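Data deposition worksheet. Section B asks for the primary sequence of the deposited chain exactly as it was used as input, without tags or linkers unless they were present during the calculation. Section C holds the resulting structure in token form. Section D is free text for depositor observations; keep each observation to a single sentence. Incomplete worksheets are returned to the depositor.
Section A, Depositor: J.P.
Section B:
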Amino acid sequence: MKKILLLLAMLGFLYAEDGVKKVVFDLTTGDTKVFKQKVLSGISNQKSYYEGKLEELKVAVVIHGDAYKFFIKDLDNSPYKKDTALVKESQEIEQRLATLAKNNNVEFLMCESGMKHNNIDKTTLYNYVKITPNATIGLIDKQSEGYVYIPIKD
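Section C:
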């Protein structure tokens, strides 16, 4: 047992980068208030905190559940076209997401399996959204790279 624990600790050190923290958010919420608080504001605040400590925070967000709607640029050609509250806020959401992707290097990974299930075409997504075969694979991959898991749900 001690050998297994020692091996796991050594593997953790292999993935750890000096001064770099890593987090993967498991984003499933469709609640706009929660999304804005935890993703749009929360990630910026967390990045600023670690920058103030002269440390880097790498962030990945795995998108599935009810969260697809926040990452679609063409709502008129999506299952969310009748969500008037979302349509009204979509421009602000897109600008803030683009800032997170571009200026803060946040990686957004969307579940392809759920996209197919919800009839969401890749061409309707923002260009900074990457596709992962499914949410579980995206989460496993990031956790295998040393990312800490945090869920964001309703």
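Section D:
The mean pLDDT is 90.
The radius of gyration is 17 Å.
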